[in-house]
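Exercise 7.
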Amino acid sequence: MSAASAALEPDFPLAVLHDLGTGVLTIDPEGRITYANPWAERLLDRPAERMLGEDAHELLHRRLDGSPVPREECLMRIPLEDGRSAQQGSEEFFLRADGTTVPIIWTTTPLLIQGRRAGLVVVFNDFSMYRAAEEQAAAHTAALEELTARLNLLADVSSVLMSTLDASGRMRRLLRVLVPGLGDWASVALCSERSGTLERVAVLSPGHPRRARRLEGSLPLLSSASREAVERLIAADEPVVLTAEELLDPQAPLAATHGKLFERLGGHSAVVVPLCARRNRYGMLTVARAGDSPAPAKAEIRLLADIGRRVGLVLDNTRLYQEQRNVAETMQRQLLAPLPQVDHLRMAARYLPAQSAMEIGGDWYDAFLLAEGVMALVIGDVVGHDLKAAAHMAEVRNMLRALAWDHQKPPSLIMCRLDEAVTNTSDAPMATLVFARIEGPEGGPWRLNWVNAGHPPPLLVTRDGDTRFLTAGHGPLIGMSATLHLGLSWPDAYEYLPPESTLLLYTDGLVESRGRPIDLGMATLRHHASVLARRLTEKTVDDFCDALLERVRPSGDDAALLALRLPATGAGAPGDVSPPPPPQSPFTSPATPDRAAPGSVQEDAPVEDPTSRVREE
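Solution. The predicted structure, written as C-alpha coordinates, is:
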Protein backbone atom coordinates (compact mmCIF):
# COMPACT_ATOMS: atom_id res chain seq x y z
CA MET A 1 0.00 0.00 0.00
CA SER A 2 1.40 3.41 -0.95
CA ALA A 3 1.55 6.38 1.43
CA ALA A 4 -0.99 8.25 -0.73
CA SER A 5 -3.55 5.44 -0.57
CA ALA A 6 -3.02 5.09 3.23
CA ALA A 7 -3.86 8.76 3.68
CA LEU A 8 -7.23 8.11 2.02
CA GLU A 9 -8.23 5.38 4.45
CA PRO A 10 -11.23 6.33 6.68
CA ASP A 11 -9.33 5.60 9.92
CA PHE A 12 -6.33 7.70 8.96
CA PRO A 13 -7.45 11.00 10.70
CA LEU A 14 -8.37 9.08 13.86
CA ALA A 15 -4.96 7.40 13.87
CA VAL A 16 -3.29 10.79 13.72
CA LEU A 17 -5.45 12.21 16.56
CA HIS A 18 -5.00 9.10 18.70
CA ASP A 19 -1.30 9.67 19.34
CA LEU A 20 -1.11 13.41 18.74
CA GLY A 21 0.27 14.21 22.23
CA THR A 22 -2.22 17.00 22.87
CA GLY A 23 -5.89 17.03 23.85
CA VAL A 24 -8.48 17.27 21.02
CA LEU A 25 -12.24 17.70 21.43
CA THR A 26 -14.82 18.15 18.70
CA ILE A 27 -18.06 19.94 19.55
CA ASP A 28 -21.29 20.06 17.54
CA PRO A 29 -23.13 23.33 16.83
CA GLU A 30 -25.16 22.89 20.06
CA GLY A 31 -21.96 22.74 22.12
CA ARG A 32 -22.05 19.00 22.84
CA ILE A 33 -18.90 16.91 22.80
CA THR A 34 -18.76 14.56 19.80
CA TYR A 35 -15.18 13.31 20.05
CA ALA A 36 -12.33 13.15 22.61
CA ASN A 37 -8.94 11.69 21.80
CA PRO A 38 -6.94 9.59 24.34
CA TRP A 39 -4.73 12.54 25.32
CA ALA A 40 -7.82 14.59 26.25
CA GLU A 41 -9.02 11.64 28.37
CA ARG A 42 -5.69 11.61 30.19
CA LEU A 43 -5.56 15.38 30.79
CA LEU A 44 -9.15 15.54 32.07
CA ASP A 45 -9.10 12.17 33.89
CA ARG A 46 -12.38 11.36 32.13
CA PRO A 47 -13.17 8.47 29.77
CA ALA A 48 -14.44 9.55 26.36
CA GLU A 49 -17.76 7.68 26.70
CA ARG A 50 -18.66 9.82 29.76
CA MET A 51 -17.97 13.05 27.88
CA LEU A 52 -19.67 12.29 24.58
CA GLY A 53 -22.98 14.13 24.29
CA GLU A 54 -22.29 16.38 27.27
CA ASP A 55 -22.34 20.16 27.04
CA ALA A 56 -18.64 20.99 26.84
CA HIS A 57 -18.95 24.37 28.55
CA GLU A 58 -21.06 23.12 31.43
CA LEU A 59 -18.92 20.04 31.93
CA LEU A 60 -15.42 21.48 31.66
CA HIS A 61 -15.01 25.26 31.65
CA ARG A 62 -14.18 26.65 35.11
CA ARG A 63 -12.36 29.47 36.86
CA LEU A 64 -9.20 28.89 38.91
CA ASP A 65 -11.25 28.34 42.06
CA GLY A 66 -13.51 25.81 40.29
CA SER A 67 -16.53 28.10 39.94
CA PRO A 68 -18.44 28.06 36.62
CA VAL A 69 -17.66 30.56 33.89
CA PRO A 70 -20.71 32.37 32.51
CA ARG A 71 -21.46 31.15 29.01
CA GLU A 72 -21.34 34.66 27.57
CA GLU A 73 -17.75 35.04 28.85
CA CYS A 74 -16.51 31.84 27.21
CA LEU A 75 -13.97 32.83 24.56
CA MET A 76 -13.67 29.28 23.25
CA ARG A 77 -17.30 29.33 22.01
CA ILE A 78 -16.81 32.38 19.76
CA PRO A 79 -16.07 30.35 16.56
CA LEU A 80 -19.12 28.22 17.36
CA GLU A 81 -21.42 31.23 17.61
CA ASP A 82 -20.24 33.47 14.78
CA GLY A 83 -18.03 31.21 12.66
CA ARG A 84 -15.02 33.53 12.91
CA SER A 85 -11.47 32.36 12.54
CA ALA A 86 -9.55 30.47 15.21
CA GLN A 87 -9.22 31.72 18.80
CA GLN A 88 -6.45 30.95 21.29
CA GLY A 89 -5.53 31.66 24.87
CA SER A 90 -3.81 30.43 28.01
CA GLU A 91 -5.76 31.86 30.92
CA GLU A 92 -8.51 29.24 31.08
CA PHE A 93 -9.13 26.15 33.25
CA PHE A 94 -10.85 22.77 32.65
CA LEU A 95 -12.45 20.71 35.39
CA ARG A 96 -11.04 17.24 35.96
CA ALA A 97 -13.09 14.29 37.15
CA ASP A 98 -11.59 14.55 40.67
CA GLY A 99 -12.83 18.14 41.06
CA THR A 100 -9.48 19.83 40.51
CA THR A 101 -8.81 22.28 37.72
CA VAL A 102 -6.06 22.09 35.14
CA PRO A 103 -4.73 25.27 33.48
CA ILE A 104 -4.82 24.94 29.72
CA ILE A 105 -3.28 26.56 26.71
CA TRP A 106 -5.88 26.22 23.95
CA THR A 107 -6.87 26.91 20.37
CA THR A 108 -10.37 26.65 18.85
CA THR A 109 -11.18 26.63 15.16
CA PRO A 110 -14.46 26.16 13.25
CA LEU A 111 -15.19 22.60 12.05
CA LEU A 112 -16.40 22.56 8.44
CA ILE A 113 -17.76 19.45 6.71
CA GLN A 114 -18.46 19.72 2.97
CA GLY A 115 -18.44 23.51 3.30
CA ARG A 116 -20.99 23.82 6.10
CA ARG A 117 -20.43 24.48 9.78
CA ALA A 118 -20.43 21.33 11.84
CA GLY A 119 -19.16 22.74 15.17
CA LEU A 120 -15.65 23.44 16.30
CA VAL A 121 -12.39 21.74 17.25
CA VAL A 122 -10.74 22.45 20.62
CA VAL A 123 -7.02 21.67 20.85
CA PHE A 124 -5.63 22.07 24.36
CA ASN A 125 -2.76 21.03 26.63
CA ASP A 126 -1.74 21.29 30.25
CA PHE A 127 -0.35 24.80 30.63
CA SER A 128 1.16 24.15 34.05
CA MET A 129 4.28 22.63 32.53
CA TYR A 130 4.68 25.65 30.27
CA ARG A 131 3.91 28.01 33.14
CA ALA A 132 6.45 26.23 35.37
CA ALA A 133 9.05 26.47 32.62
CA GLU A 134 8.20 30.12 32.08
CA GLU A 135 8.38 30.87 35.80
CA GLN A 136 11.63 28.96 36.06
CA ALA A 137 13.05 30.89 33.11
CA ALA A 138 11.91 34.17 34.68
CA ALA A 139 13.49 33.14 37.98
CA HIS A 140 16.73 32.24 36.22
CA THR A 141 16.68 35.55 34.36
CA ALA A 142 16.09 37.46 37.59
CA ALA A 143 18.88 35.53 39.32
CA LEU A 144 21.26 36.23 36.43
CA GLU A 145 20.33 39.91 36.48
CA GLU A 146 20.92 40.02 40.23
CA LEU A 147 24.23 38.19 39.85
CA THR A 148 25.28 40.52 37.02
CA ALA A 149 24.41 43.57 39.11
CA ARG A 150 26.38 42.13 42.03
CA LEU A 151 29.39 41.34 39.85
CA ASN A 152 29.26 44.82 38.31
CA LEU A 153 29.11 46.34 41.79
CA LEU A 154 32.04 44.21 42.97
CA ALA A 155 33.97 45.19 39.84
CA ASP A 156 33.36 48.86 40.62
CA VAL A 157 34.40 48.28 44.24
CA SER A 158 37.59 46.51 43.13
CA SER A 159 38.38 49.35 40.72
CA VAL A 160 38.04 51.86 43.56
CA LEU A 161 40.13 49.80 45.97
CA MET A 162 42.92 49.35 43.40
CA SER A 163 43.23 53.10 42.84
CA THR A 164 46.34 54.97 43.95
CA LEU A 165 44.45 57.25 46.30
CA ASP A 166 45.09 57.28 50.03
CA ALA A 167 42.75 55.46 52.41
CA SER A 168 40.40 58.44 52.85
CA GLY A 169 40.14 59.03 49.11
CA ARG A 170 39.42 55.36 48.45
CA MET A 171 36.71 55.26 51.11
CA ARG A 172 34.99 58.34 49.68
CA ARG A 173 34.92 56.78 46.22
CA LEU A 174 33.73 53.49 47.72
CA LEU A 175 30.71 55.17 49.31
CA ARG A 176 29.77 56.72 45.97
CA VAL A 177 29.64 53.17 44.57
CA LEU A 178 27.48 51.83 47.43
CA VAL A 179 25.01 54.73 47.65
CA PRO A 180 22.20 54.72 46.56
CA GLY A 181 22.39 51.15 45.22
CA LEU A 182 22.68 49.50 48.64
CA GLY A 183 21.63 52.27 50.99
CA ASP A 184 20.49 55.85 51.41
CA TRP A 185 23.61 56.93 53.28
CA ALA A 186 26.88 55.36 54.35
CA SER A 187 29.98 56.06 56.41
CA VAL A 188 33.43 54.59 57.02
CA ALA A 189 35.25 54.88 60.35
CA LEU A 190 38.90 53.82 60.50
CA CYS A 191 41.27 53.40 63.42
CA SER A 192 43.83 56.19 63.49
CA GLU A 193 47.40 54.93 63.17
CA ARG A 194 48.66 57.62 65.53
CA SER A 195 46.11 57.68 68.33
CA GLY A 196 44.31 54.36 67.83
CA THR A 197 40.92 56.13 68.09
CA LEU A 198 38.15 55.85 65.52
CA GLU A 199 37.87 58.53 62.89
CA ARG A 200 35.08 58.92 60.35
CA VAL A 201 37.07 59.40 57.17
CA ALA A 202 34.04 59.49 54.84
CA VAL A 203 30.30 60.08 55.20
CA LEU A 204 27.99 60.25 52.18
CA SER A 205 24.30 61.19 52.17
CA PRO A 206 22.86 62.50 48.87
CA GLY A 207 19.86 63.86 50.78
CA HIS A 208 21.96 65.74 53.37
CA PRO A 209 25.42 66.43 51.88
CA ARG A 210 26.35 69.27 54.25
CA ARG A 211 25.33 67.35 57.34
CA ALA A 212 27.31 64.37 56.11
CA ARG A 213 30.50 66.42 55.70
CA ARG A 214 30.12 67.88 59.20
CA LEU A 215 29.92 64.36 60.63
CA GLU A 216 33.42 63.48 59.38
CA GLY A 217 36.32 63.60 61.81
CA SER A 218 37.49 61.98 65.02
CA LEU A 219 34.88 60.35 67.23
CA PRO A 220 34.68 61.40 70.88
CA LEU A 221 36.35 59.24 73.51
CA LEU A 222 34.27 56.12 74.05
CA SER A 223 33.18 54.71 77.35
CA SER A 224 34.53 51.30 78.31
CA ALA A 225 31.21 49.65 77.37
CA SER A 226 31.09 51.37 73.97
CA ARG A 227 34.74 50.62 73.31
CA GLU A 228 34.25 46.92 74.09
CA ALA A 229 31.17 46.81 71.84
CA VAL A 230 33.06 48.44 68.97
CA GLU A 231 36.02 46.09 69.41
CA ARG A 232 33.70 43.07 69.34
CA LEU A 233 31.98 44.40 66.22
CA ILE A 234 35.22 45.12 64.36
CA ALA A 235 36.66 41.73 65.28
CA ALA A 236 33.51 39.84 64.22
CA ASP A 237 33.30 37.77 61.06
CA GLU A 238 29.80 38.89 60.06
CA PRO A 239 27.99 42.25 59.83
CA VAL A 240 25.61 43.52 62.50
CA VAL A 241 22.17 44.94 61.69
CA LEU A 242 21.24 48.03 63.72
CA THR A 243 17.83 49.65 64.05
CA ALA A 244 17.05 53.24 64.96
CA GLU A 245 15.07 52.04 67.98
CA GLU A 246 18.16 50.39 69.45
CA LEU A 247 20.02 53.71 69.41
CA LEU A 248 17.32 55.78 71.12
CA ASP A 249 18.87 54.89 74.47
CA PRO A 250 22.02 57.05 74.89
CA GLN A 251 23.53 54.23 76.96
CA ALA A 252 23.25 51.75 74.10
CA PRO A 253 26.72 50.32 73.28
CA LEU A 254 26.81 51.72 69.73
CA ALA A 255 24.94 54.96 70.40
CA ALA A 256 28.26 56.81 70.73
CA THR A 257 29.39 55.76 67.25
CA HIS A 258 26.10 55.68 65.32
CA GLY A 259 23.61 57.78 67.29
CA LYS A 260 24.50 61.08 65.65
CA LEU A 261 24.53 59.48 62.20
CA PHE A 262 20.91 58.37 62.58
CA GLU A 263 19.94 61.62 64.30
CA ARG A 264 21.36 63.90 61.57
CA LEU A 265 20.84 61.76 58.48
CA GLY A 266 17.71 59.80 59.43
CA GLY A 267 17.11 56.14 58.81
CA HIS A 268 15.41 53.08 60.27
CA SER A 269 18.10 50.41 59.90
CA ALA A 270 21.74 49.96 58.99
CA VAL A 271 24.25 47.21 58.31
CA VAL A 272 27.55 47.68 60.14
CA VAL A 273 30.34 45.73 58.44
CA PRO A 274 33.68 45.02 60.16
CA LEU A 275 36.82 45.91 58.22
CA CYS A 276 39.48 43.45 59.29
CA ALA A 277 41.98 41.05 57.74
CA ARG A 278 44.63 38.67 59.03
CA ARG A 279 43.67 39.46 62.63
CA ASN A 280 44.23 43.17 62.08
CA ARG A 281 41.30 45.49 62.78
CA TYR A 282 40.89 48.62 60.71
CA GLY A 283 37.40 49.99 61.28
CA MET A 284 33.82 49.61 60.16
CA LEU A 285 31.60 50.37 57.18
CA THR A 286 27.99 51.44 57.82
CA VAL A 287 25.31 51.37 55.10
CA ALA A 288 21.88 52.62 56.19
CA ARG A 289 18.30 52.64 54.87
CA ALA A 290 15.92 55.56 55.38
CA GLY A 291 12.40 56.60 54.44
CA ASP A 292 10.42 54.00 52.48
CA SER A 293 13.47 51.91 51.62
CA PRO A 294 12.99 48.31 52.80
CA ALA A 295 15.24 46.77 55.41
CA PRO A 296 18.32 45.09 53.90
CA ALA A 297 17.72 41.55 52.64
CA LYS A 298 19.95 38.64 53.56
CA ALA A 299 21.53 38.64 50.10
CA GLU A 300 22.40 42.33 50.46
CA ILE A 301 23.91 41.72 53.88
CA ARG A 302 26.06 38.93 52.44
CA LEU A 303 27.13 41.24 49.62
CA LEU A 304 28.15 43.96 52.10
CA ALA A 305 30.06 41.36 54.13
CA ASP A 306 31.96 40.40 50.97
CA ILE A 307 32.74 44.04 50.24
CA GLY A 308 33.90 44.52 53.85
CA ARG A 309 36.33 41.61 53.53
CA ARG A 310 37.72 43.07 50.31
CA VAL A 311 38.18 46.50 51.93
CA GLY A 312 39.88 44.91 54.93
CA LEU A 313 42.33 43.03 52.71
CA VAL A 314 43.15 46.17 50.75
CA LEU A 315 43.76 48.14 53.96
CA ASP A 316 45.95 45.31 55.27
CA ASN A 317 47.91 45.10 52.02
CA THR A 318 48.40 48.87 52.15
CA ARG A 319 49.76 48.53 55.67
CA LEU A 320 52.14 45.75 54.61
CA TYR A 321 53.24 47.80 51.60
CA GLN A 322 53.97 50.83 53.77
CA GLU A 323 55.83 48.72 56.32
CA GLN A 324 57.96 47.16 53.60
CA ARG A 325 58.57 50.54 52.04
CA ASN A 326 59.49 52.05 55.41
CA VAL A 327 61.89 49.21 56.15
CA ALA A 328 63.56 49.54 52.75
CA GLU A 329 63.70 53.32 52.88
CA THR A 330 64.96 53.33 56.48
CA MET A 331 67.66 50.85 55.55
CA GLN A 332 68.74 52.96 52.62
CA ARG A 333 68.74 56.19 54.61
CA GLN A 334 70.87 54.45 57.25
CA LEU A 335 73.31 53.63 54.47
CA LEU A 336 73.36 57.21 53.17
CA ALA A 337 76.00 59.38 54.81
CA PRO A 338 75.50 62.88 56.21
CA LEU A 339 77.58 65.48 54.41
CA PRO A 340 80.74 66.89 56.00
CA GLN A 341 81.15 70.64 56.03
CA VAL A 342 84.67 71.65 55.03
CA ASP A 343 85.77 75.27 55.17
CA HIS A 344 83.88 77.39 52.63
CA LEU A 345 82.70 74.48 50.47
CA ARG A 346 78.98 73.88 50.73
CA MET A 347 77.16 70.70 49.74
CA ALA A 348 73.58 69.46 49.59
CA ALA A 349 72.17 66.01 48.87
CA ARG A 350 68.74 64.71 48.10
CA TYR A 351 67.46 61.16 47.90
CA LEU A 352 64.02 60.36 46.43
CA PRO A 353 62.72 56.81 47.00
CA ALA A 354 61.02 55.00 44.16
CA GLN A 355 57.25 54.97 43.86
CA SER A 356 57.24 51.19 44.38
CA ALA A 357 58.47 49.67 47.62
CA MET A 358 60.30 47.00 45.60
CA GLU A 359 62.23 49.65 43.65
CA ILE A 360 64.12 51.09 46.63
CA GLY A 361 67.69 50.05 46.54
CA GLY A 362 70.78 50.83 44.56
CA ASP A 363 71.26 54.61 44.34
CA TRP A 364 73.65 56.38 46.69
CA TYR A 365 75.83 59.43 47.16
CA ASP A 366 78.86 59.92 49.39
CA ALA A 367 81.22 62.70 50.44
CA PHE A 368 84.18 62.31 52.78
CA LEU A 369 87.63 63.71 53.51
CA LEU A 370 90.63 61.67 52.42
CA ALA A 371 93.75 61.24 54.48
CA GLU A 372 95.57 64.04 52.64
CA GLY A 373 92.70 66.45 53.31
CA VAL A 374 91.16 66.25 49.84
CA MET A 375 87.36 66.07 49.58
CA ALA A 376 86.05 62.98 47.77
CA LEU A 377 82.64 62.95 46.08
CA VAL A 378 80.78 59.85 44.90
CA ILE A 379 77.50 59.26 43.13
CA GLY A 380 76.57 55.70 42.16
CA ASP A 381 73.90 53.18 41.27
CA VAL A 382 74.11 49.41 41.79
CA VAL A 383 72.12 47.33 39.31
CA GLY A 384 68.82 46.18 40.86
CA HIS A 385 65.79 47.64 42.58
CA ASP A 386 65.20 45.89 45.91
CA LEU A 387 66.63 45.42 49.38
CA LYS A 388 69.32 43.17 47.95
CA ALA A 389 70.47 46.04 45.73
CA ALA A 390 70.65 48.27 48.82
CA ALA A 391 72.87 45.71 50.56
CA HIS A 392 75.11 45.47 47.48
CA MET A 393 75.24 49.24 47.34
CA ALA A 394 76.57 49.28 50.92
CA GLU A 395 79.27 46.78 49.96
CA VAL A 396 80.45 48.79 46.95
CA ARG A 397 80.32 52.08 48.84
CA ASN A 398 82.37 50.76 51.77
CA MET A 399 84.93 49.14 49.46
CA LEU A 400 85.34 52.44 47.62
CA ARG A 401 85.73 54.36 50.87
CA ALA A 402 88.41 51.99 52.14
CA LEU A 403 90.34 51.98 48.86
CA ALA A 404 90.15 55.77 48.51
CA TRP A 405 91.41 56.26 52.08
CA ASP A 406 94.15 53.70 51.90
CA HIS A 407 95.48 54.43 48.42
CA GLN A 408 96.30 58.10 47.90
CA LYS A 409 96.35 57.61 44.17
CA PRO A 410 94.51 59.02 41.14
CA PRO A 411 90.84 58.00 40.79
CA SER A 412 91.69 55.82 37.79
CA LEU A 413 93.76 53.46 39.92
CA ILE A 414 91.12 53.44 42.65
CA MET A 415 88.57 52.32 40.04
CA CYS A 416 90.79 49.46 38.91
CA ARG A 417 91.17 48.24 42.48
CA LEU A 418 87.44 48.62 43.11
CA ASP A 419 86.56 46.69 39.96
CA GLU A 420 88.82 43.82 41.04
CA ALA A 421 87.51 43.87 44.63
CA VAL A 422 83.86 43.80 43.59
CA THR A 423 84.51 40.98 41.15
CA ASN A 424 86.53 38.79 43.51
CA THR A 425 85.18 39.48 47.02
CA SER A 426 81.49 40.33 46.52
CA ASP A 427 78.41 38.98 44.80
CA ALA A 428 77.30 42.51 43.98
CA PRO A 429 76.28 42.94 40.33
CA MET A 430 77.60 45.70 38.13
CA ALA A 431 77.45 49.30 39.27
CA THR A 432 77.81 52.73 37.70
CA LEU A 433 79.46 55.59 39.57
CA VAL A 434 81.41 58.82 39.40
CA PHE A 435 84.36 59.13 41.81
CA ALA A 436 85.82 62.63 42.09
CA ARG A 437 88.41 64.52 44.12
CA ILE A 438 88.07 68.26 44.84
CA GLU A 439 91.65 69.51 44.82
CA GLY A 440 92.98 72.96 45.56
CA PRO A 441 94.08 75.32 48.33
CA GLU A 442 91.56 77.12 50.50
CA GLY A 443 90.46 80.17 48.53
CA GLY A 444 90.99 78.39 45.18
CA PRO A 445 91.55 77.70 42.46
CA TRP A 446 89.69 74.37 42.68
CA ARG A 447 90.24 71.46 40.37
CA LEU A 448 88.02 68.44 39.79
CA ASN A 449 89.82 65.12 39.20
CA TRP A 450 87.34 62.36 38.35
CA VAL A 451 86.58 59.10 36.59
CA ASN A 452 83.22 57.92 35.31
CA ALA A 453 82.27 54.23 35.37
CA GLY A 454 79.32 54.18 32.96
CA HIS A 455 77.38 56.82 34.88
CA PRO A 456 75.50 59.93 33.64
CA PRO A 457 78.07 62.76 33.37
CA PRO A 458 78.39 65.49 36.03
CA LEU A 459 76.82 68.84 35.22
CA LEU A 460 78.81 72.03 35.86
CA VAL A 461 76.71 75.17 36.31
CA THR A 462 78.38 78.59 36.58
CA ARG A 463 76.99 81.51 38.56
CA ASP A 464 75.93 83.15 35.27
CA GLY A 465 73.95 80.08 34.20
CA ASP A 466 76.37 78.59 31.71
CA THR A 467 76.09 74.79 31.83
CA ARG A 468 78.23 71.98 30.54
CA PHE A 469 78.21 68.22 30.97
CA LEU A 470 81.64 66.86 31.93
CA THR A 471 81.76 63.95 29.53
CA ALA A 472 85.45 63.04 29.90
CA GLY A 473 86.84 60.26 32.07
CA HIS A 474 84.43 57.58 30.84
CA GLY A 475 85.19 53.90 31.39
CA PRO A 476 83.31 50.60 31.81
CA LEU A 477 80.86 49.76 34.56
CA ILE A 478 82.27 48.47 37.83
CA GLY A 479 82.24 44.66 37.79
CA MET A 480 82.57 44.34 34.02
CA SER A 481 86.25 44.56 33.14
CA ALA A 482 87.65 42.15 35.74
CA THR A 483 84.72 39.73 35.33
CA LEU A 484 85.13 39.47 31.57
CA HIS A 485 88.92 39.83 31.69
CA LEU A 486 88.73 42.77 29.31
CA GLY A 487 91.68 44.69 30.70
CA LEU A 488 89.82 48.00 30.38
CA SER A 489 90.72 51.13 32.33
CA TRP A 490 89.27 54.42 33.50
CA PRO A 491 91.05 57.54 32.25
CA ASP A 492 91.55 60.38 34.73
CA ALA A 493 89.82 63.61 33.76
CA TYR A 494 90.54 67.13 35.08
CA GLU A 495 88.51 70.31 35.08
CA TYR A 496 89.06 73.61 36.91
CA LEU A 497 85.88 74.70 38.64
CA PRO A 498 84.91 78.37 38.32
CA PRO A 499 84.34 80.30 41.57
CA GLU A 500 80.73 80.23 42.85
CA SER A 501 79.86 77.49 40.37
CA THR A 502 77.77 74.44 41.26
CA LEU A 503 78.71 70.87 40.44
CA LEU A 504 75.80 68.43 40.14
CA LEU A 505 76.25 64.66 40.48
CA TYR A 506 73.07 62.63 40.00
CA THR A 507 71.73 59.15 39.23
CA ASP A 508 69.71 58.17 36.18
CA GLY A 509 66.45 58.21 38.17
CA LEU A 510 66.62 62.01 38.08
CA VAL A 511 66.72 62.24 34.29
CA GLU A 512 65.16 59.01 33.00
CA SER A 513 61.77 57.37 33.45
CA ARG A 514 59.43 55.06 31.55
CA GLY A 515 57.92 58.01 29.74
CA ARG A 516 61.06 60.12 29.31
CA PRO A 517 64.29 59.04 27.56
CA ILE A 518 67.56 59.93 29.25
CA ASP A 519 68.63 62.40 26.53
CA LEU A 520 65.49 64.45 27.03
CA GLY A 521 65.86 64.21 30.80
CA MET A 522 69.44 65.47 30.71
CA ALA A 523 68.45 68.37 28.46
CA THR A 524 65.63 69.22 30.89
CA LEU A 525 68.02 69.09 33.85
CA ARG A 526 70.52 71.33 32.09
CA HIS A 527 67.86 73.89 31.15
CA HIS A 528 66.36 74.19 34.63
CA ALA A 529 69.78 74.27 36.30
CA SER A 530 70.77 77.18 34.04
CA VAL A 531 67.59 79.13 34.78
CA LEU A 532 67.86 78.59 38.55
CA ALA A 533 71.54 79.53 38.67
CA ARG A 534 70.64 82.99 37.32
CA ARG A 535 67.56 83.42 39.50
CA LEU A 536 68.88 82.08 42.82
CA THR A 537 72.22 83.87 42.97
CA GLU A 538 71.73 84.79 46.62
CA LYS A 539 70.22 81.46 47.70
CA THR A 540 71.97 78.49 49.24
CA VAL A 541 72.82 75.26 47.49
CA ASP A 542 69.97 73.63 49.46
CA ASP A 543 67.51 76.10 47.96
CA PHE A 544 68.96 75.37 44.53
CA CYS A 545 68.44 71.59 44.93
CA ASP A 546 64.89 71.97 46.19
CA ALA A 547 63.91 74.25 43.32
CA LEU A 548 65.60 71.97 40.79
CA LEU A 549 63.73 68.88 42.00
CA GLU A 550 60.47 70.81 41.95
CA ARG A 551 61.01 71.58 38.29
CA VAL A 552 62.45 68.25 37.14
CA ARG A 553 59.91 66.12 39.07
CA PRO A 554 61.51 62.66 38.80
CA SER A 555 59.14 59.70 38.94
CA GLY A 556 59.32 55.92 38.96
CA ASP A 557 62.88 54.93 39.86
CA ASP A 558 64.73 56.13 42.95
CA ALA A 559 67.05 59.09 42.45
CA ALA A 560 70.01 60.64 44.25
CA LEU A 561 71.41 64.15 43.81
CA LEU A 562 74.66 65.56 45.22
CA ALA A 563 75.49 69.24 44.69
CA LEU A 564 78.73 71.08 45.52
CA ARG A 565 78.81 74.89 45.64
CA LEU A 566 82.24 76.51 45.26
CA PRO A 567 83.06 79.69 47.20
CA ALA A 568 84.03 83.02 45.66
CA THR A 569 87.61 83.65 44.63
CA GLY A 570 89.84 83.96 47.68
CA ALA A 571 87.07 83.15 50.16
CA GLY A 572 88.57 81.40 53.15
CA ALA A 573 92.13 82.08 52.10
CA PRO A 574 94.59 83.38 54.73
CA GLY A 575 93.81 87.01 55.44
CA ASP A 576 90.27 86.82 54.08
CA VAL A 577 87.89 88.72 56.38
CA SER A 578 84.67 88.17 54.42
CA PRO A 579 81.97 86.27 56.32
CA PRO A 580 81.68 82.58 55.47
CA PRO A 581 78.61 81.32 53.59
CA PRO A 582 75.67 80.06 55.65
CA PRO A 583 76.32 76.64 57.17
CA GLN A 584 74.90 73.53 55.57
CA SER A 585 71.41 72.66 56.78
CA PRO A 586 71.42 69.50 58.91
CA PHE A 587 67.66 69.13 58.48
CA THR A 588 67.55 68.57 54.72
CA SER A 589 69.98 65.65 54.58
CA PRO A 590 68.45 62.39 53.33
CA ALA A 591 70.57 60.46 55.85
CA THR A 592 69.27 59.44 59.26
CA PRO A 593 69.53 62.50 61.56
CA ASP A 594 71.44 60.72 64.34
CA ARG A 595 74.36 59.80 62.09
CA ALA A 596 77.60 61.80 62.03
CA ALA A 597 79.23 62.83 58.79
CA PRO A 598 82.36 60.91 57.84
CA GLY A 599 85.39 63.04 58.71
CA SER A 600 83.22 65.45 60.69
CA VAL A 601 85.82 65.59 63.44
CA GLN A 602 88.03 67.33 60.85
CA GLU A 603 85.38 69.87 59.93
CA ASP A 604 87.79 72.82 60.09
CA ALA A 605 90.81 70.99 58.69
CA PRO A 606 92.53 72.76 55.79
CA VAL A 607 92.11 71.25 52.37
CA GLU A 608 95.48 70.51 50.86
CA ASP A 609 96.31 70.87 47.20
CA PRO A 610 98.23 67.75 46.06
CA THR A 611 99.30 69.53 42.86
CA SER A 612 101.02 72.39 44.68
CA ARG A 613 104.36 70.57 44.80
CA VAL A 614 104.22 69.99 41.06
CA ARG A 615 103.56 73.67 40.40
CA GLU A 616 106.33 74.77 42.77
CA GLU A 617 108.83 72.51 41.06
